[in-house]
Design brief:
Elements lengths: L16 E4 L2 E4 L18 E3 L2 E3 L16 H25 L11 H28 L45 E5 L18 E7 L4 E6 L5 E5 L3 E3 L1
Antiparallel strand pairs: 1-2, 3-4, 5-6, 5-9, 6-7, 7-8
């Protein structure tokens, strides 16, 4: 028994039958629901088991969901579950210490620069102490332990014998750092950098890497890192 056409409800014979969208159609009846343009298996679009052309295919729009009591309850339950999971994760990771940071080339460069700056500052402090004649004093009697102030003397006119004056340490040789002159103005971007103006003289300059130097601005006395392409050797 031959099926009926879904459009005209007449018998569809095998020579003119189109089987699509779980229905049977005549070739002439298989057309758009809106403009009635005849369709085929290549250009039709189905919506709710009805054929449409590309121009009249229904557009699906988003609908607003009302805040019903059930939706509000589900929303509150989802929020509480998120808080519980967050608290469990926090308790699980508490006390595990800092997270591991990848040792990238940029971090290696920053670490190397900081080490060089620390080494330079250490040598500067050492030279200052050497110039000032500061040296740690050791007690004359090592077994005496910690230093204790002398007891008050009853003779207020007691004149102790003056100790021999220690000669000052010899001055260190002049710094071997190079001198440079700024060819551009530069404003420090970080705390470990130094600002200068065009024409300033940079003293005690030491090369850190290809792009950065460390030195002291003669005009301001400030010390820090400076870009190597902003200065030229004197």
């Amino acid at each position: 028994m031959n099926p009926l056409c879904s459009r005209c409800n007449l018998v569809v014979y095998p020579t003119e039958k189109v089987n699509c969208l779980d229905k049977y159609w005549h070739k002439g009846c298989f057309s758009c629901e809106v403009c009635k343009m005849t369709l085929n298996m290549k250009n039709y679009k189905g919506f709710e088991k009805r054929p449409y052309c590309n121009a009249h295919y229904p557009k699906t729009n988003f609908t607003c969901v009302a805040d019903t009591p059930e939706n509000l309850r589900l929303k509150q339950q989802s929020k509480m579950q998120s808080q519980v999971l967050y608290r469990e994760d926090f308790e699980k990771n508490k006390g595990k210490g800092f997270s591991v940071v990848a040792d990238t080339p940029e971090l290696q460069r920053i670490k190397k620069t900081q080490d060089q700056i620390s080494n330079i500052k250490y040598h500067e402090e050492f030279e200052k102490r050497k110039m000032g004649g500061e040296a740690p004093l050791t007690p004359t009697n090592p077994s005496a332990g910690a230093y204790q102030p002398p007891a008050a003397s009853q003779n207020y006119h007691y004149d102790p014998t003056p100790e021999p004056v220690r000669q000052a340490a010899a001055a260190p040789p002049p710094s071997s750092g190079k001198r440079y002159r700024a060819v551009y103005d530069y404003l420090a971007a970080d705390d470990d950098e130094v600002s200068f103006m065009d024409g300033d003289v940079i003293e005690d300059v030491q090369q850190i890497d290809e792009g950065w130097m460390y030195g002291r601005v003669q005009r301001t006395g400030q010390q820090g890192m400076l870009p190597a392409n902003y200065v030229e050797a004197i």
